[in-house]
Design goal:
Elements (H helix, E strand, L loop, with lengths): L1 H14 L7 H8 L3 H13 L4 E4 L5 E4 L12 H15 L3 E2 L2 H14 L2 H12 L14 E2 H12 L2 E8 L5 E14 L2 E8 L4 E6 L3 E10 L10 H13 L2 E7 L3 H8 L7 E3 L5 E7 L2 H9 L5 E5 L1 H18 L1
Helix pairs in contact: 1-3, 2-3, 4-5, 4-6, 10-11
């Protein structure tokens, strides 16, 4: 019985690969006859595993989707990846699935070998998630995400109310294409029919989402790398005002300090100076980021930036005065 059970587990592990297995190949790998393979396949079916068999020269066995979720066999790397994913979800920004993820994680950790449990703990304790720079993050309903994904899959035109960062609401009629997760926020890439252009919507700012009953023909996406496209659009929103300064430091040093916030906005003026163009939501944000340069600088424009820097300097001076 133990030998039969072990063989069934080995057979199940093979069938979970996304391919069809000829009976002769399974028999060779398991070291049994093709008749034994047929009998073992029937045992798996009785246990609830939907094993399909196809005939012909290229036929064989494969595991398909069934009416219920049967137990799965995972190798070491798969188990570690799933455990890390579940731990991340339990503290993530998608509401409505934390409890389910926690139950699944509890079941997995009960049977996780100690060596793998240590790997998961080590990876989790030495991994830092990039948050929203201190701002309060809005949770997104998991069911709402699933519905948006289904509408995109089925190419259904949607109508919803959308609130901008000032809170003003407008009605949008869109063709949904992709959902993108960046940090703790979810974005919907869609074609806005009223504006005849591509738009990126924060999912937590949508409400009253309704399918209008019409389907759309797929358009070419606005970019090959949709994640990079969303990141670029989001940075545009975060850089509504801009300022230009001359920094008395090498361009390489300023690039290392500012990172993405000065992407494409640094021009070398020699070994010890560079021109920096920086953006932010407000002129005060730009003044603040100039303070982290740890280098002398001169404000070139706009005049409002020079005034914001003076206010910030006065505030710092009063703090130590």
């Amino acid at each position: 019985m133990a030998e039969t059970s072990g063989r069934l587990l080995a057979l199940l592990s093979l069938l979970q690969a996304p391919r069809e297995w000829p009976g002769s190949e399974l028999a060779r790998r398991l070291g049994v006859s093709t008749r034994t393979v047929r009998n073992d396949v029937e045992r798996l079916r009785q246990l609830g595993y939907p094993v399909e068999a196809t005939r012909g020269a290229v036929g064989g066995y494969r595991l398909s989707a069934g009416a219920a979720m049967p137990p799965l066999l995972l190798d070491d790397d798969e188990a570690v990846a799933i455990a890390l994913g579940l731990r991340t979800v339990t503290g993530g920004a998608v509401s409505g699935i934390e409890e389910n993820a926690l139950r699944a994680l509890t079941k997995l950790q009960q049977v996780l070998p100690q060596r793998l449990a240590r790997q998961v703990d080590a990876l989790q304790s030495h991994t830092v998630r990039v948050g929203g720079r201190g701002r309060q993050q809005q949770e997104v309903d998991g069911a709402a995400l699933a519905r948006l994904a289904a509408h995109a899959r089925d190419r259904e035109i949607l109508r919803f109310d959308y609130a901008d960062h000032h809170g003003a609401s407008t009605e949008r009629r869109i063709e949904p294409y992709r959902l993108v997760n960046w940090g703790r926020r979810w974005y919907l890439v869609a074609y806005d029919l009223h504006r005849a252009d591509w738009r990126t919507f924060r999912v937590d700012r949508t409400s009253n989402v309704v399918a209008v009953g019409h389907r759309f023909t797929l358009r070419p996406l606005p970019a090959d790398d949709i994640a990079a496209y969303v990141a670029g659009k989001t940075r545009q929103v975060q850089r509504q005002v801009r300022g230009r300064v001359r920094v008395h430091a090498p361009a390489e040093r300023v690039v290392a300090i500012m990172g993405n916030w000065a992407e494409g906005g640094i021009e070398s003026l020699g070994p010890q100076a560079c021109l920096l163009e920086l953006g932010g939501r407000t002129i005060e944000d730009v003044a603040f980021w100039l303070g982290v340069l740890d280098a002398d600088f001169e404000v070139l424009d706009p005049p409002e930036l020079a005034a914001a820097v003076r206010r910030l300097a006065d505030r710092y001076a009063r703090a130590v005065g």
